[in-house]
Specification:
heterodimer; A: about 450 residues; mainly alpha; 19 helices; disordered C terminus; B: alpha/beta; Rossmann fold; seven-stranded mixed sheet; 14 strands; disordered N terminus
Chain lengths: ~450, ~400
């Protein structure tokens, strides 16, 4: 008999629900509390009154207090949805269901309200009102969390950009591609680990982080040494050159790995969600928020506590003086660019956990972060927060850019500035390049020694 | 028509074409930019089909020569390149486009120069142009059967119509909204949501869906989310524990390619409505997959619905050209009506006078290996029909 002669068993969702419930019934009396918990949850979802005697038996034998509470909740769920249960039972069940406090409780209570006899309606309605009130409050907190989590992703992606922009005045249009390279490094690391050390798959991200940082930092340094250093002081040319690099990187990745998404798996400690006082917080987002904070603190420490940070700040504030004091400014530039790119690589590892790993990953970020006004505002604020207290007080990023413009365009007649003249002329005390700068929207800070 | 003839006669090089010993086939897909993820594989499929045909001796005794251009996900550029293909490269037929906006952009060019376009992707209907052959599904060949299936099998009473913000999802959702209302679904039981291309932060929308689904009625999501945005969407669904047994998602733009970058274990049971799945168990499909994988030299690349559409469209064109004895557009347009070729799911696809083809509708549920289990198949051949304009009280934009 050929393969096609046999009729295939097709599993659809209806069958899947039956199977889920059956597995729940069979494992409800298991020795393992975690299995019992899962079994109770699947029985709770089905809410079939047939399971009540079984659940009562399990409840009597249950010793784990957590599982016991869950079983009581499950029992209440079933009783409340059972039209044959006595009114007293259902009346007692309503508050228990309401106490469990999640979304499904609202679903069940609403369903029960529609079918309940009049005697019960008031009770159920009271439970439901309390729950809806809580739900509204929780919704607000949940929204704040979504904001934080979205913000942390943007922060991670933009923070490296802020460093190169802040310190060197280079708008790196290839920054998104650095993020993409970080994500592809994660993919490669996972692929290698899966092949050579499958036991370590859970920890692949721990390997991917340093690998992505090093790889993207090296690529960044190569770009700085190979291209950008010839273009210092020419922001428009840098913009164009880095845009070109971004296209080259994108297409090379597309040629090597193909245009389709690559599969990066979430380790189990980053999948699923945890219920936290009725909030549902997905684990991957939670860890990314933590990671963004960690990267941020690490960057603060590098800038404030290491020799490289000191040199970076010195170069930022006064390049010529720093050079005169014996700081090798070209090396500081290269390392700064490497640091910014490396952090983009770290962002790539994080983004690979929530977004597509495809050649377009970086481009999507450009659209979100680089284009439009967000560049200046976002870049500034992150730069300030990430920089030393000194830079935070001053308009660091625009100043650096102004200085470069000033150096480039001492003659105002040749100013290539993109920005129209502001209505009021800002004060820029040191005469050099004064008028050229006045045509930019930067340099509003009168105290800034441009 | 008249314009097309005039344009044809205005070009001195046209008669010379007949003496050339190859027939040129234009391939108009995005090989870079946001749509490259979907379209690059279609270009590979076309090269494969042309190569196979050449091995069989070509068409009309001539070898086929592919001319590939990259429209870079840029629709005005698509129109320019279509013109270049027809006027400069002198191709006889073009296979291409994915998005509806691409098709709409190149349409006037094909009309003006009277050339042929085979368009392989499911779309919103409401179109039937003389120079275009639609080998993808119209809404009645995909969306409506899928909604019927979900309503009957899962007992769904509340619907979320979620899509990417452009012409195909907007029009399809408008058709579906009307269809559901006609079936007696109340307006408050329908939630419509649009997101931009490449949307990646699905937290709020998924929790809205969850909240919408907790009204005590069985809820399903009908997804016309396109391209890249699908992976983060499904990932968020999986992480939030939205199980197919609770809130099933029925997608129209998701296939094997879209799931390739995803761990599908949490998604088992969510479904897609297509006209072809790689898991279709027929000898034709087995041969096609094996030959294609040998051609591209990789056994882990998947095949999907638009590839089958190109397969059907290409074979129809070959048959029509051989019947007409020429590659001339007018002759082919006449001879292709009624042409029937085997599709990969074991039936026949035939070209209807409205330039749409007959297709079976398959509904597949996602498996944990990224493939689909076919749970439903239309009994008939599923004739393609142009979807008529919507009722007046619900005008199209």
């Amino acid at each position: 008999m050929g393969r096609r002669d046999a009729e295939k068993v097709r599993v659809n969702n209806n069958l899947r629900r039956v199977i889920r419930s059956a597995i729940g019934q069979m494992t409800l009396l298991s020795d393992n509390p975690a299995t019992r918990r899962a079994a109770t949850q699947s029985i709770m979802r089905d809410a079939d009154p047939v399971n009540l005697p079984l659940l009562d038996e399990a409840l009597a034998a249950e010793t784990d207090p957590g599982v016991k509470t869950l079983m009581q909740t499950a029992r209440a769920f079933i009783v409340l949805q059972d039209p044959n249960a006595s009114i007293e039972d259902r009346e007692a069940a309503a508050p228990v269901v309401a106490k469990s406090g999640d979304r499904s409780a609202i679903t069940v209570l609403r369903g029960a309200l529609a079918n309940a006899p009049d005697a019960l309606k008031a009770d159920i309605q009271a439970s439901l009102d309390g729950l809806s009130h809580d739900a509204a409050a929780r919704g607000a907190v949940q929204n704040i969390w979504y904001g934080i989590s979205l913000g942390s992703v943007l922060l991670l992606a933009a923070i490296g950009l802020a460093i190169t922009f802040g310190v060197m005045g280079v708008i790196n249009m290839a920054h998104g591609e650095m993020v993409m390279l970080g994500a592809y490094t994660t993919f490669m690391t996972q692929a290698l680990i899966r092949q050579y050390a499958p036991g370590l798959a859970e920890y692949s991200l721990a390997v991917a982080l340093p690998a992505a940082f090093l790889f993207t930092a090296l690529v960044g340094i190569a770009i700085e040494r190979g291209v950008i250093r010839w273009l210092y002081g020419r922001p428009l040319e840098t913009l164009l050159a880095t845009r070109g690099i971004s296209l080259i990187l994108q297409q090379s990745v597309r040629t090597i790995f193909g245009p389709t998404n690559q599969m990066v798996s979430n380790p189990s400690w980053m999948s699923g969600s945890v219920a936290f006082y009725g909030l549902s917080i997905t684990r991957n987002r939670f860890w990314i928020v933590m990671f963004a904070i960690a990267v941020f603190l690490m960057l603060l420490m590098i800038l404030n506590r290491t020799p490289l940070g000191l040199q970076m700040r010195a170069v930022t504030q006064n390049r010529r003086m720093a050079s005169a004091m014996g700081i090798r400014t070209p090396m500081v530039d290269a390392l700064t660019f490497g640091l910014g790119s490396g952090i983009a690589g770290l962002a790539g590892v994080a983004l690979s956990q929530i977004d597509n790993v495809s050649p377009n990953l970086g481009q999507g970020l450009h659209h979100r972060q680089l284009h439009g006004r967000g560049v200046r505002r976002g870049g500034q604020s992150v730069g300030h927060a990430g920089g030393s207290p000194h830079t935070r007080r001053r308009q660091q990023i625009p100043r650096t850019l102004c200085r470069r413009r000033a150096r480039q365009n001492p003659d105002p007649g040749h100013d290539h500035s993109l920005h129209p003249a502001p209505a009021t002329r800002p004060v820029c005390p040191q005469g050099k390049g004064d008028r050229a700068m006045s045509r930019t929207t930067f340099c509003r800070n009168g105290a800034t020694p441009c | 028509m008249a314009v097309g003839l005039m344009a044809g006669t205005a070009l001195p090089a046209v008669p010379a074409l007949a003496q050339e010993d190859t027939i040129k086939v234009g391939i108009l897909h995005s090989l870079s930019g946001t749509m490259a993820i979907s379209e690059t594989t279609l270009k590979d499929t076309m090269l494969f089909l042309i190569d196979e045909q050449n091995k069989k001796g070509g068409v009309l005794g001539k070898q086929l020569e592919p001319v590939v251009v990259d429209i870079a996900s840029d629709w005005p550029l698509a129109a320019e390149l279509a013109r270049q293909l027809i006027e400069v490269d002198k191709v006889d037929v073009v296979f291409g486009c994915w998005t509806s906006v691409c098709r709409k952009s190149v349409l006037p060019v094909f009309e003006e120069l009277n050339s042929l376009l085979f368009y392989p992707v499911q779309y919103e209907g409401e179109e039937s142009q003389r120079n275009v052959f639609y080998t993808g599904a119209a809404p009645n060949q995909q969306a409506i059967p899928a909604v019927d299936y979900t309503a009957n099998e899962e007992g769904v009473e509340r619907w979320v119509l979620a899509g990417t913000d452009y012409v195909y999802p907007q029009t399809t959702n408008k058709i579906l909204e009307q269809y559901l209302k006609d079936k007696g679904v109340a307006a408050e039981d329908i939630m419509i949501n649009y997101t931009p291309f490449g949307h990646s932060d699905w937290q709020t929308i998924v929790s809205d869906i969850k909240a919408f689904g907790s009204a005590g009625k069985k809820t399903a999501v009908v997804s016309t989310i396109n391209g890249d945005a699908n992976v983060p969407f499904y990932r968020e669904l999986g992480n939030r524990g939205i199980d197919a047994a609770d809130i099933p998602v029925v997608a129209f733009s998701v296939g094997e390619e879209e799931l390739a970058g995803l761990d599908t274990a949490p998604l088992v049971g969510h479904s897609a409505a297509r006209n072809y799945f790689m898991s279709v168990d027929t000898p034709e499909n087995e041969d096609f997959i094996a030959a294609r994988q040998a051609f591209i030299g990789s056994t882990d690349r998947v095949t999907n619905d638009p590839m089958e559409a190109h397969y059907i469209g290409f074979n129809m064109w070959v048959k029509a050209v051989e019947a007409a004895g020429t590659t001339d557009s007018d002759a082919v347009i006449d001879s292709i009506i009624g042409v029937a070729v085997p599709n990969l799911s074991g039936g026949l696809a035939s070209m209807a006078p409205n330039h749409h083809i007959t297709k079976p509708v398959l509904i597949g549920e996602i498996r944990d290996d990224g493939q689909f289990d076919i749970v439903y198949e239309t009994p008939g051949s599923g004739a393609g029909r142009r979807v008529e304009r919507l009722p007046a009280q619900n005008p199209s934009p």
